[in-house]
Amino acid sequence: MTDTQYIRDRLNRPMKDLRISVIDQCNFRCTYCMPAEIFGEDYRFLPFKELLSFDEIVRLTEIFAKFGTEKIRITGGEPLLRKNLDQLIKRLYAIDGIKDIAITTNGVFLTKQAKKLKEAGLDRVNLSLDAIEDDVFKEINGRGVKTKPVLKGIEAAQEAGLQVKINMVVKKGLNDSQILPMARYFKGSDIILRFIEFMDVGNHNGWNMDTVVSKQEIVDRISAEMPLEPVEQNYYGEVASRYRYLDGGGEIGVISSVTDSFCGSCTRIRLSADGKLYTCLFATEGYDIKTPLRENASDHQLILELIKLWSGRTDRYSDERAEGKPLKREKIEMSYIGG
Ligand code: SAM
């Protein structure tokens, strides 16, 4: 078998993290991600036969592990809508070289699933919660769901022994009123709250620079009431800037995906639910790996496909945005590829 461990792209970036979207459907209709006007009753989600099967996902992950991929994040859509997800996690956990499995979820189904996911080998949960006040949250999620089921999901995850981080996307005028209430709510708990700058992913979220609340502004707003100081990165390539409360109330993170650029240290590859590979969140086109997979390609052939894709990779979208290059183009939706 080819020694694939040290494959690098054209900008010398290794391939380390694999994000697997297992479904394109979601139980929420967050206005900035899957607005109900677009993703309505008539919207055609992927038919089941188009989704990669667990066998196919496991086979590809085994190949990725040979490339040095160690971390897996399961996402969607809402990944907990994919039936028997624990069975997939169990099989991924058993793959040689896979050291860490995380999931990104809105948390509503964790009360039922947290324990069996943990038992299957899940390590961490990134739970998306964009507001702590019911009125704001109900409006954002587009389904009128209150925060209680999500808070129950957080509790269930912690009880199951899963590490939990909360992610809050901040969009000006939508939920920036929640920065302080969210910070107050999670301060002093053992849960890290991370604020994420609203990004220009997808085509339907009405993004423009005026809708972004910058990392600096988020930190200043919190620090004015609850003083913060910066903390060192945990590891090379960590995207969240860390801050701790001076009074010992724990720490927060801020992911400045717009005002900073992380392209230089981006080691991520994304697999869509229908078997397309994307080397950038802001990509237009995916690389079809399902066809060779379903046409009985050998492992060697699949490895050659991945080498071709990764070794030719030059994308650096956020760098180009920061450099002021014109970027207008159709992008994949966040709900399709996951976070
Ligand atoms: N349904 C799951 C969830 O809610 O976490 C997983 C999929 S969701 C697409 C993954 C993450 O992407 C969520 O935290 C969501 O808030 C975030 N997201 C969606 N659109 C975004 C945008 N324009 N900018 C930043 N984050 C975004």
Taking the sheet with the most strands, its summary is: 12 strands, mixed
Low-confidence parts, pLDDT < 50 over ≥5 residues? none
Spatial strand sequence of the major β-sheet: 7-8-9-6-5-4-3-2-1-10-11-12
> What fraction strand?
15-25%
What form results from the Cα inertia axes? globular
Helix vs. strand class: alpha/beta
Amino- and carboxy-terminal Cα gap: 32 Å
Number of helices: 11
Look at the structure and give the mean pLDDT: 94
Share of helix, binned? 25-40%
Task: Write out key terms for the chains shown.
single chain, 11 helices, 339 residues, 12 strands, twelve-stranded mixed beta sheet, alpha/beta, globular, 29% helix, binds S-adenosylmethionine
Set down the secondary structure blueprint.
Elements lengths: L16 E5 L32 H13 L4 E5 L9 H9 L6 E6 L4 H11 L3 E5 L5 H8 L6 H12 L3 E8 L8 H8 L5 E6 L17 H11 L2 E4 L8 E6 L5 E5 L12 E4 L4 E3 L8 E2 L1 H5 L4 H13 L5 H6 L11 H4 L2
Parallel strand pairs: 1-2, 1-10, 2-3, 3-4, 4-5, 5-6, 6-9
Antiparallel strand pairs: 7-8, 8-9, 10-11, 11-12
Helix pairs in contact: 1-2, 2-3, 3-5
S-adenosylmethionine binds next to strand 3, strand 5 and helix 11.
